[in-house]
Amino acid sequence: MTAYGPPALVLRRAIQLSDSGKPLEAFPLLAIAARAGIVEAEYRVARCYLEGLGVPPSRSEGARWLRRAADHGSPDAQSLLAALYVAGLAAQEPDGNGLESQSLFERDSSREPEFAAAFGLAKKAAEAGSATGQAILAYILSRGPEAMRDLDAAHGWYEKSAAAGCPEGCLGLALSLARRGQPAQTAKVAAEVRRAADAGLPTAIYLLGVLTE
């Protein structure tokens, strides 16, 4: 019980305010619910810090709350924290543009990825059914250090992610199919790139333009 009532009701009110476009009013209530240990609130507080919604942006605070939610079993938090580690952003401050898992496919190579830290988180999220977690795990298995790579396993995770409609999974599956070089899969490659492009993934939009020239 909090001064504002049961934490679950506080979270519900916070979500209503957030959905109504009132992040400044929503954030204090989210923080109350998060401090009470509600996992969804912990994840939402993390997103607020990462995106600057109702609070000044802070990637370090966002990562801290993601770790709490991830430790409490949130697949969404596990996926996003894994993405932060892979992109080398877990301890860096934001540029005001927020962060999504799609940054894996437009990663700034000047940042050093932390694949070892990301792997366990992505695996937990993937096995829990998170399509985003599946795409991140597949990315690690296909693009991580040589000792971590397993292209067949990566392909399988990309298939699961794409089947669930994840844009990063669709793009990853397209690239995985293209690497296999099977002419019979050309149409499938194009279709998966288009699905990712239709979802707004910049790399996929570029590749779709190349494929349709």
SSE diagram, text form:
Elements: H1 7-19, H2 23-35, H3 39-51, H4 59-71, H5 75-86, H6 115-127, H7 131-143, H8 151-163, H9 167-180, H10 186-198, H11 202-211
Helix pairs in contact: 1-2, 2-3, 3-4, 4-5, 5-6, 5-7, 6-7, 7-8, 8-9, 9-10, 10-11
| Cα-atom radius of gyration | 18 Å
- Which whole number gives the mean pLDDT? 91
Q: What letter string, H or E per element, gives the SSE order?
A: HHHHHHHHHHH
State the end-to-end CA separation: 61 Å
Structural class: mainly alpha
Contiguous runs where pLDDT drops below 50 for at least 5 residues: 93-98, 100-109
Largest sheet: none
In one word, what is the shape?
Answer: elongated
Word description of this protein:
The chain is mainly α and 213 residues long. It has a domain at 1-69. It has helices at residues 7-19, 23-35, 39-51, 59-71, 75-86, 115-127, 131-143, 151-163, 167-180, 186-198, 202-211. The longest helix is centred in the last third of the chain and has 14 residues, at 167-180. It starts with 6 loop residues before the first helix and ends with a helix. Residues 93-98 and 100-109 have low confidence and may be disordered.
Compact overview of the structure:
This protein has 213 residues and is mainly alpha-helical.
Can you give keywords for this protein?
213 residues, mainly alpha, 11 helices, 66% helix
